[in-house]
Automatic annotation (TrEMBL):
<protein>
    <submittedName>
        <fullName>Uncharacterized protein</fullName>
    </submittedName>
</protein>
Amino acid sequence: MKNLFYGVLILHLILWVSCTGSPRSREVKEPESPAELLSDSSLTDFDFEGNWRWCWVDSHTIVSMKILTDKDSIGDYVYTYYFGNRIEQGKVKLLSQEGRNAVLLVEYNDHRSWSAKFNATMLTDTSFFLTRQKPEDYYLEDSIVMTKYYPEKERAEVRKIIEEYNQKERIRYEALKKKGIYLK
């Protein structure tokens, strides 16, 4: 009977430890808000320049932007309706940037009087939150996560550079091999 008591006591102790976690795991605090999540100091370079997109199901691009960060530079903006039956094109301009936060101005080509400002908050070096400043200004979701992408042309150029490098390394390796020098 004594062994049964100690067995049950040990099982309760194991269950209690597994539910409460170790003292070290209790030190790690989950972020309670997006602002806390964004307080990560490991990202120090906040570069909004480049090609960004927000995709819907099956990688169907809904919003794409080419953001330029040089002063007075204007990039491209494309909004494709969910079913692809209409496309709106316009311009995007980086109005201001302070650390990981920026303000973007989007203007349509077809409606010169229409424009909307968006807040952009860098999450990682390849993603940022895009949020409308005024919900009534635009028919996009309240907040979307834009991700950086590289157009096919740029990817082809990178593949070409990598292939040229690999070819030079093969030639170098063969030359060393002829001299009797072997690399591990």
